[in-house]
Each structure stands twice: as C-alpha cells, then as structure tokens.
Design brief:
Largest sheet: 3 strands, mixed
Number of domains: 1
Radius of gyration: 17 Å
Number of strands: 3
Distance between the termini: 38 Å
CATH architecture: Up-down Bundle
CATH topology: Four Helix Bundle (Hemerythrin (Met), subunit A)
Amino acid sequence: MRLIDPILMEFDRECATTRKMLERIPDEKLEFRPHAKSMTLGHLATHLATIPAWIAASVLDEGFDLAAPMDRPEAPERAAEVVAAFDASVKGAKEALAKLDDALAMGTWTLRKGDLTLMSVPRIAFVRSILLSHSIHHRGQLSVYLRLLDVPLPMVYGPSADENPFA
C-alpha cells in the first residue's frame, strides 16, 4: 500500500458526503450570504467544489505561488453547475494523486506568496491538509448556510436533525 492510499480512501468517503451537501443547494439562494463579510452561497459552494482541482493542478509540482495569476471560477447560475464542477474536480484530483509514489509523497512541497515562504511540508501533508481538512472546513460552513436557509442537512459523521436512520 502506498502512503497516499489511506488518504484516497478517506477522500472517497468525504466526497460522497460533500456531494450530498452540494446537491441540496437551492438555485434561488446562490446569492445568499449570512453576513456582509461572508461569501455568497454560490461562491462558497464553488470554492468547495474546486478544491480538489487545485490539488490536481499543484500536487505534482514543487509548490505553489499565491502571487501568481489565478483563474477564479465564475459564480454559478444553477446549483447543478457546482455539482458538475465538483465531479470534474474530484476526477482530476484522483488522476493526479494516482501518480504520487511514496518518494514523491514525502518530497517537499512549498507554498509561497512571491518571495515569502508560507509553508514547506512533505507533499502528503499538503494533500491531507488541503484536500481533506480545508474541504471539511468549508463543507462545515456550507452546512451552516444551508441550515440558516432551512434546507434539510444530510448525515455527515452521524445523524443530522433531518436525516437519522436510527430514529
């Protein structure tokens, strides 16, 4: 078993849950924001959906420079666009991570902003932190947005108030 394989197994489980959450986004609420400082629902969902694509685009490189020009996804017009972007993003991440042998996984990956080094970690730590932890963080934010909109929430790590197979 490669070092990346347990992370890929966890990624598969997390993706199934994230997809369920994204599928519940109401089209008519994409512009909703719970606070003036918050992202819109559409922006947050698109960010969450494209995190795996960012992994796919950078994991095999030596690192990433935040000062470099970046393409920002367009705001979605329909929630189905977010789900489709997520599916494509996940596919790309899995293809890139399939190329990650143990030597590459333990190699150094560096996040920079111009000349400033923000972090320099083993590539596998970057994958775990961004692909899983960062995604889970934003999925949690998404669940709060959906709850505020009275959208029924799926189970995540256990029953939700709306989905409880044990009740």
